[in-house]
Amino acid sequence: MSENRAFFRETVEQILADTLDQSRIEASERRMLPAALYKALEENGVTRMLVPEGKGGIGADIGDSFAILRAMGAAAAPGPIVETMLGNKLLAEAGLEPADGLIALAFADDGAAVLHAVPWGGGVDHVLAVTPSGISLSASASWEMEAALDAADEPRDTLRGSLGAIVALDTSATLRTAAILRAGQMLGAIEWTLARSIDYAGERKQFGREISKFQVIQQMLAELAAQLLASAGIAEAAADAGRETLIAAARSRLGDAADAAIGIGHQVHGAMGFSKEYALNHRTRRLMAWRDDFGSVQFWRRRLAGGFVTCSREEFWPAIADAGNRRAA
């Protein structure tokens, strides 16, 4: 990790420690965002991480943002941080000023009148619609909202209205950028789940000894650690390279790791893990929601496979070996 990247992550970890606790995480299930957290993130330039310095941002890259989002995921920080960071990036690329406040991001067709399952769609300042032709920014208050929730009981609202003027912009890479940024949050939540499961196994006693001494528990934790390490390697590479094939592989691999974290984390914790007052559920339920954000696991596996289906027998292995340089179909 570079010095700048380590500094970014340490800064955000300190902000999270100062502004986010269990009660504020739980408040998000009542559609209440942690105001102190987002005020501090905005003051420290995090919401404009991906905006060039000349346009009032930090000028960081996707890999830097990925590191920050990893910390946010580990802390189960609620709210549209990915959407706001990416939204401001798109606004800057379109020659517009970054937005003040928080942004909800929606992928839609040109002329769409309904935006489906928009994270925090009715609880932010702006809605940014990403279409094949470009982007359209509007006030969230201009949309009629039908409230809904995801697996973490955070808002996934349906918005009805009409898009404003569309500013022309090449948005072909936007979905994969959103996908790898969300992957950072997923990776952080998986890391937290493994670390807490290891600690809990060392604390919980059964039949006169810590459950961490039972072979079956050791095997489950080893399996989760392997899933984490494999996912981290490919996700970090994908964030730095930005190539479609790597991002497709990372999201596919993280889908498996998320399933392992949810299952193993709760098995190790037993009944304690299913208590809503216990911190584990805030990570595992977010993993249930995040694993299908910006393309489901199946979607990304099809994208990954699509890059190789036309290969001949002689071409297949060289193509796999050079996957990081290939463009997904």
Ends: how far apart?
Answer: 31 Å
Based on CA inertia axes, which overall geometry fits? Answer: globular
Per DSSP E runs of 2 or more residues, the count of β-strands stands at: 9
CATH topology of the largest domain: Butyryl-Coa Dehydrogenase, subunit A, domain 1
- Determine the mean pLDDT: 94
Strand content: 5-15%
Task: Describe the main β-sheet briefly.
Answer: 4 strands, mixed
* Computed Rg: 20 Å
How does CATH name the architecture of the largest domain?
Orthogonal Bundle
> Strand arrangement, largest sheet?
1-3-4-7
* Main structural class: alpha+beta
Percent range for helical residues?
Answer: 40-55%
Order of helices and strands: HHHHHEEEEEEEHEEHHHHH
How do the strands and helices of this protein lay out in sequence?
Blueprint: H1 3-19, H2 22-27, H3 35-43, H4 62-74, H5 81-93, E1 103-107, E2 114-119, E3 126-130, E4 134-139, E5 144-146, E6 156-160, E7 167-168, H6 174-203, E8 205-206, E9 209-210, H7 215-241, H8 244-269, H9 280-290, H10 297-306, H11 313-321
Parallel strand pairs: 1-3
Antiparallel strand pairs: 2-6, 3-4, 4-7, 5-6, 8-9
Question: What descriptive keywords fit this protein?
Answer:
329 residues; Butyryl-Coa Dehydrogenase, subunit A, domain 1; 52% helix; Butyryl-CoA Dehydrogenase, subunit A, domain 3; 2 domains; 3-stranded antiparallel β-sheet; alpha+beta
